[in-house]
Amino acid sequence: MLYRFGEFELDEDRRELRRDGEDVAIESRILDLLLQLIRASGRVLPREDLKRLVWPDVAASDHSVNQALYGLRRALGDDPREPRYVQTLRGRGVRLIAEVASLEPPPPSPFGPTGEPPFVGREGVMAQLDEALAAADAGRGGLVLITGEPGIGKTRVLEEFRKRAIAAGHLTAMGHCPEDAGAPAFWPWIEILREVIAGEDWDRVTSGLWDDEAPRRDEARFRLFDSIDRLIGERAMEQPLLVALDDLHCADDATVALLKHLRYGLSDQKVLIVGSSRLGSASYGRVVNALGGSGAGPPAAFIQLGPLSLSDSSKLLPDREEAVAAQYHEYSGGNPFFLSQIVLATRATPPDADVDLAVAGRTVGDFVLAHLRQLPKFTRRVLGLAAVAGRDFHVSDVAAMVSGNPEEVLQALYAGVRSFVLDLDGNSASFRFRHVLLCDVLKDQLDVGDRDHAHGRLALHLIAASSSRAAQYRAAKHACRAVAVLGADTVLELSLGVARDAAKSFAFDVAQRICEEALAAVGSSPASESLLVEILVVLGESQIRRGQRAAGRATLEAAIEQAGATASGDLIGEAALALSPGFFAIETGVFDPQVVSLLEAALGTKSGRSRDVEAQLAARLAMALYWKSGSGLRRKELVEHAEALVPQSPRSRVFVSAARVVALWSADSIAARQGEVDQLIEFASASGDIELELLGRVFGVTTQLERGNHASARREIGEFSSLVEAHRLPGASWFVDMYYGMLALEAGELGRASQRISRMAKFRSVFPDANLENSIAVMTAIASWWRGDLGPLIGSIEELVDRYPAAIAWKVARGLALIDLGRIDEAREIVAILSRPGELPDDTLRVVSLTVLAHMAVVLKMVEDVPTLYSQLVAYRGRYAIGGYGVFSWGAVDSGLARLAATAGDWGAAGEFIESASLMLSEAGVRAWKAEHEASVAALLVRRGRSRDFQEARRLAQMASREAQRSGLGRVSRIARGVLDFIGDG
Description:
The protein is α/β, with parallel strands linked by helices. The protein is built from 47 helices and 17 strands. Strands 4-3-2-1-7 form a five-stranded antiparallel β-sheet, with helices on one face. The chain has a five-stranded parallel β-sheet with strand order 9-10-11-8-12, with helices on both faces. Helix 9 (253-263) links the parallel strand 10 (241-246) and strand 11 (271-278). Helix 16 crosses helix 19 and helix 33 runs antiparallel to helix 34. The longest helix has 18 residues, at 448-465.
């Protein structure tokens, strides 16, 4: 007999006392005392009766009783002054005051007391895993993905291999991807990181990502990837690390993205990651692409588990005759889980009985039911409702769905544990189904109406029980399955709140999934038009933020159309604004007529719209028109209109301030722009808008670089970097690597620049962004140009010319590549066309494009085009040639002017510009551009042909050559070497 009281369970037959599933040490005589108190069912037992019952063959004293009671209270953790279990009544005796439930134990498991079948038939798999672990020990980490059909033993292999790794002295950590997505993003990594890191590191890495109390702006997760990668690598240096990820086919997008990111660094780490995934599942391809696709880092090794052999299957059936074992093996197909369920379903059958398995059950589900039919009806119902909660659940989840005594519910769940259906998961109130197939079979046995009501009651329970994001997310998931019970509006409202919260945390994959599930659940049910529009807006913005632009636009167009039926200008405006979300999503060189058209239409809708939304629409439209030729006047009018509305909310006021800087950015506006940028940073900081404050600092960096104030720019970059580190805003994080990569290129530190470009490429895998792609491409091109061979990139550059036709700088870059390829006539044609007045728009690329064209005209000796270029470029003398928002540079404008003047024969002006450029480049500390300037001036002096200039040319060429050799500047080295070969080294 089994007895349950409080958190204790007493197994009379085995004479074992357990607390929360863990054995409690207790002496035999004290156990006898506890049994007598239990059998008395709460009655008071006089001391004399206790002596007779507990010490039948001994003349026990009162002291013996007192000592036994003391030992019992210590085992139970009971306080005699405030007893919860054992109460002493002076002069009367002793009684057990806790409520006791008596349970008949189920038949014993044929697999022993744990109910776990022996681990057999995987020797070859374990050898492969041992080999991978040994490679990781040697610093060659890797990935292994174990695949197979349901029930084939993937999780068991992970668990057994983890035991082996622990025995061999490895640090191990295991995370489970929830089968029924009710956990927050990154849940398996949370489990893993809790085991790998602790204390200060844990707080630093996870603060603001998974802490429900953290400010929302701190929840942006993507910037954490590098720090998690670094910490795991550092921890593995202390002790080789095995990371196990179970059920990857159920992983959320964020979990897969982090896994893909960590893959890049495994080649030189003492880390082995082993995952399991169901073969052929809907999301299997996504996991394969992440682990086995091309790119840096080792691809995964794939191990597919097959069925057990007859010999191995027989080891699971030690009490069955050979012929019967063969019958079981054939019917189960060697699937370990299927085989175990056949065994459990037929455990009452004699070992030599010839069982007609086709009658006993045709599928694994039938055998599971045959096994479960051995349980009482109420227990089966409780387990079925538990399955609605998911594979992992808390007793309170089930109690919320069951009408009955909570203690009876708990006892039914414990019966599930004793029947090898459930496992206790850490404490007496948390459970886990031993296999997801058990969960699925039980759930399928419920009527549709029962399931709907269970989902609805659970959703309401989760809402009331906790305000945590995880609980609210689970509530939304269950609400979506209970539309018939809760109603469409309740489902949409709950899902909308959860999706918005996820979007604020930059968990756009979660937001998208919640919105899609809510819309699918509601279907054609009557629902509030405004709620439908709002959830479509969140869905569309999430799709766009994840790079699914076409799908996002289609969603938002549907939202705008549906919002028209509500006659709400604000709803229409919010949908239109979501078409281009976030200031860091503004794309260089892109004019999108569809976005402009929808913004125009939304701005034209006047009814039911607030001044704030109208101001934001006007400001956003002004920015969207930036790359449209001839739109300057229209942009100015829109910004002035937005400002005249005097928006009420701080967010809208900062939004309009930022739009002024973006929409009216001009090469000629540098003086006025600095004041506007300072004001934007001040407003954004005061309003707590971190995204816009970072945008203001981007503008600040660019403006300082344009002015040649590299020291100030570096300080601004430091401030920007500190903000990014503190707030982890994903759309801004890669800017830090871009800035430091650009500065490294200017300094001739090509190796360091390549490292920064690689980091940007790694970030691209988790946060798709067109500007990031553009920046990686231009920095790669400049690095190739410095090395002296831009030609091989011609194909990529031509693709960028087609993709960003308004970004003239890519057409200029094509000309540079053509020169390296020796296609001189084509390069000359580019210079001739783009040097005409009016060809280069007054945008963020104007000054750098003019400076590069000046370089090309001099190299190609296009004397006829020099005056036109000079007249346009001289307006920017004393400036630094910066492209985009600080993405790349082309040295000092005065260096280009010097070459143009010298080529035109105006050596007086050339001398002045040579001197001013040298001073600017020295003060900025940009050694690469200084060396390029020196080599080019030396070549000009030699071309001039005066022997008295040769000494200066030699001096400049020698300095340039030394720097070129130190930095690997092949292009500069060739120019300097040519000068020295002509005039001699002296």
